[in-house]
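Why this split exists: single-chain examples teach little about how molecules sit against one another. For that reason, every record in the complexes split bundles all components of an assembly together and asks for one structure covering all of them. Below is a record exactly as it appears in the raw files.
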Amino acid sequence: MLEIANNRFPRTPYYLMGIGVVLLLVGSYYGLFVAPPERYMGEVQRIMYVHVPTAWNALLAITFAFVCAIAFLMRSDFKWDARMEAAIEVGVLLAFLLCVQGAIWAKPTWGVWWDWDPRLTTTAVLLFAFLGILALRRFVDDPVKRGIWSAVATIIAYVDVPIVYFSVRWWNSLHQLQSSPDTVSSQFHLPLRVNAFGVLFLMTGFIMLRARLASLRHVSEVAPPPMLAEEAGEMA
Amino acid sequence: MIAALRKELLLQWRTRAQFLAVFVFGATALLLFSFAIGPNAADLRKFSAGFLWLGLLLSSTLTLSESFHAEMENRAMEGLLLLPADPRVLYYGKAIANWLQLMVLGIALVPVMVVLYDAGTTKIPMLLVVIALGAAGLSAPGTLYAAMTAQVRSKQTLLPLLLFPLIVPALLASVKATSLLILGDPMGSLGSWLTLLGAFDAIYWALCGLLYGRVVEE
Amino acid sequence: MSQMADLAIDAERLARRYGRRWALADVSIRIPVGSVTMLSGRNGSGKSTLLRVLATAIRADQGRATILGFDLVRHRPDIRRASALLAHYNYLYEALTARENLEVIADHLGQGRGSIAALLDRVGLAGRGDDPVSTYSAGMRKRVSFARVLLQEPRIVLLDEPYAQLDPAGFELVDSVVRELRSGGVTVLMATHHLDRTVAIADHHLVLEAGRVESFR
C-alpha cells in the first residue's frame, strides 16, 4: 500500500511557508528601503534581492528533482516520483520567474528585453526542457511508465544543464561582454541571505504540499488490490 | 550487436523512399529560411551554417520518429526483447543507424546550402567531421526520446519538445564549427568547438545507452 | 524440492491491472512440465494478460511465479530464453520478407540461418517466403509467427489464440505443431475458444473468469 510520506507532520508545510513569507517580507523590506542603492546601477539593482535567491533555489529544486529521479529508478517507490514531480513544477515556476526578473532588469539597463546572459539563457533552456518533461507526464497514462520515463528525462536534462551553461557562455563571450547583475558588495549580503532562506522555506513548503497532492492522486489513480478469492466466494 | 545493426540497415534500405522525402523536406526548409532573410547575399552567407543545422534538426524529428514506426507497427521491438535481446544492444544498433542516416542527410544538404547561400568551404574533410559529430549529438538522445514518444499519443509534438532544449549545446557547437569553416577561423577556435561537441557526444552516447533499458522494458 | 523441477509453471496470486481494472486478479496455477494445457474463458477474462505476464512481456503487479524454476522477476532473461510467445501482435517487420524476419531472429539469437528454409516449408510458406510481409494475408502472418516460435527452440510455448485467422489447413498445422512440441517434451499453454478441437490434444484445461481461476482439471 502506498505510504503518504508526511502523514506524521501534516502541518509542517504550512509552518515552513509561514516562516518563508515572514523572512521574505523582512528581507525585501530591508533590500527595498533600507539598503542604499548600488553605485553604478542604481535602484534597478535592487532586483538582486529577489533574483539571486530565486536563482539559488531554482538550482536547488532542479537538483532535488535529479536526486528524486535517481532514487525512483533505484527504489521504484512512488513517493520519489511524487517528490520529483513537485520539485520539477516548483523548479519550472522559479525558472520562469528568473527569466521575468532578468527581463525586468535588462530593459532599463540595456534597452532590450533579453541580453543573452549565459546564466539566464541556460535558465531559459532549462525551463523549456522541464516543461517538456511535465508535458510528457501528461501524455502517459500508465503510472509506472510515466514515473520511469520522466525520471530518465530528468536525469538527461539535468546532466545537460552544465553543458548548456558552458556552451552558451563561450558562445556569448565571442560576441559581447555584457555583465549581468551579480556584483553585490558585502553590506548587501544580509537581505540577500534572508530572502534566500525565505524562498527556501516557501519552496520547501510548496514542494511538500505538491508532493502530497501527487501521492494522493497516484493512490486514487491506482485501483485498490483485488479481493481475496475466499472473500469473493463468500460474497457471491 | 552486428545483428541489430544489420537489421536496422536492412530496414533503412527497404524504406529508402522515405529518406528522399525527408531530404526534400530539409531542402525546402533551407529554401524557406532564405525567403525569411531576403536576397541579401552577405546575410545569407553569414547565417548559412545556422540554416543548415536548423534544417537538419527539423528533418531529424522525422527520421527519428520514422525509425520506430516499424518497431511499433506489430510490436516487433517487444518481440526482440523477448528473445531475449539486450536492450542496450538494440539501442546502439538503432542509434548508429540513425546517426548514419542523419550524416548522409547532412552531407546531402551541403550542396543545397552552397547553392542557396553561396556558402562553401574547401575544407571538406573537416566539414565531414563536423557533420559526423553533430549528427551523433542529435542521434543519441533523439533515439532514446523517439523510443519513448513512439508509444504515446501526440508523439509528433512531444519529440521536438523534449529533444530541442536538450541538444542546444550540440546545435551551438555544430553551427559555430561549420560557420568557422565557411567564413574563416582567424582565432583558431574550431578545435575547441569540436571538443565541446565530442564531449557532448561521449556523455550522451554513454548515458542514453545506460538508461535505454528502463525506457523500453515493460 | 524435486516437485519444483517438475513444474513448468508455478504461479501464486498473480495480479495485473490496467488503470483501475484488474485484468488478472488472483491467479495461482501449477502446470507440469511437458503437458499441454488448454486455457479458456470469456473475452476479457484475462487469458492474453496471463500469457503475457508468464512470458515476461508485461510485469505482474502482485504475486510471484517461477517458470521452469526461474523466478518471474529476477530471472527474466532466462525465462525469455526458454520460452516463446505467440501473441496477438505478430512481432513482424512489414517491410521485410518472411525469410528476412526469421533471419533477424536467428541473428539475434546467435543461431545459424540454416533451419529457416525448412521452417518456412513446415508452416506452408515455402513459395511466398521472399515476399514482403506487407503483402501477406492475416493467415500467412500467423504462419510466420509460428515459424518464429519454432525457430527459438523453446522449452515452454505460450500460444494466444493460435487458430485465429487460419484456414482449415492452418488448423491442422497448429495441431501437428502442438503434438510435435509435446512429443519433444515442450510444455504448451494455449488460449483458445476452439474447445472441441483442442480437448483432443490437451492434458489439462484451465478456465479463467474475470481474472481469476475458475477451474483447473
